Amino acid sequence: MTRRGAGALAASPTMVGAVTTLIVILAVFLAYNANNGLPFVPTYRLSVEVPNASTLVRSNDVRIGGVRVGFVDSVEPVQDPKTGAVHAKVDLKLDKNVDPLPRDSTVIVRSRSALGLKYLEIDKGTSNKGYPEGAVLPLKAGHPKPVEIDQVLNTFDEPTRRAIRGNLVGFGDALAGRGPDLNAALGELRPLLDRLEPVARALAAPSTGLERFIRALSDTAAEVAPVAEIQAQMFVSLDTTFGAFASVARPFLQQTISETPPTLDTLVRTSPRIRTFLGHSATLFADLRPGVRALSENSPTIASALETGAEVLPDTPQLNNQLAPTARTLEAFSLDPDVNGGVTRSTKFFSLLTPTLKFVTPAQSVCNYATLLTRNAQSLLSIGDGVGTSQRFLVVSGGQIDSFVGVNAPNSENGPSSAPAASPSVDSNNYLHANPYPYTASPGQPHVCAAGNEKYIQNQVEVGNPPLLGTGTGGNG
Hints:
- The chain is α+β, with helices and mostly antiparallel strands.
- Helices cover 53% and strands 14% of the residues.
- Strands 6-7-2-3-4-1-9 form a seven-stranded mixed beta sheet, with no helix packed on it. It has a two-stranded antiparallel ribbon with strand order 5-8.
- The radius of gyration is 57 Å and the shape is elongated.
- Mean pLDDT is 78; it is low at 398-406.
């Protein structure tokens, strides 16, 4: 009965096709989900926080000692609520035989290939305590991501990468088809390696100081790093310079190189004879150094004078033609007795006038009194008494009459008096204020202008220059 059923099943094409299709679907399903774990297989779930999970994606391997023990289930960013820093949280599905993972274990993201494929490596610890199911390894358990080959390649700019590709193509073309030659070269390297061994041993000896040399090179590179751009610009400038030399290399540089040995021979032969001349030249240039320094400081003035001279020089011949008759005329004028007598009398006149001018000049140049006197006289003649000139005078004369007794107050200024007015009256105080010789900033006087700037002091006789004079240009008269 059983054989008949099995034979009937094998004899049915429909049943065979159905079973085959079911097996294929099951195989495809298991292959598709192999990276996500097989169904009905228990797993050990953990999460780990790492500083940087760059290019780590779902289904990447998790390895311990190079052996795959699980895979990455998900990767998501996490922000620290205290500092605001962002790191990554990686959920893992591990084999059950890893459970429990020791608490002193660490993780690091490593490269699996040069194409950027990554995997998570677990450095298993030795602690007796382990992480339970669903635990999260803290951020301190995650090592910083090491420098990868793709990061190294990304440090080069596009022209450099293009040049590297060109070099690789050139090296490939150079090595293609030269396998026997390379094998022969490697065979010949054995004697070199035999000799290289004692050299390497000597370099590794402490007495060689190779470690200090490498450290010094590191310090030198650190010192040079800040001026790397300047050095790069120097090489660019050197390229420009050598490019300029290349344009004149033939025949000028060739001639210079070929003529240099004979020139040096001539110099060696003649240098003893010109040694004295060179010594005197050195002394001359040393003496000229202060003059050259002064010349460099005054070069703008000299340049301006030369520019002006260039404009004037075309008219110089005409000027020179007029200088001769002008000089003869001046000579005849200087020999004339009347001229000499006039100059003598003028000199005597100005010598007598100089002391007077010393006192008179400041009255105008400092205090402007002559201009003020002229302006006041002009105002008196043009305006007249229309603005109360007489009333201004009564302030001086009328105030000296006592209107209560009807007579002049003592020592009134209306006429001659025996003493300066110095007594009060009923209507006003009768105190003399006069300054017949005010300061005019003349020699021996303070640098002030007294007239018109005197300070009026009540109930006090004030004759002459009072203290605390102003420094203006005089009053208005």
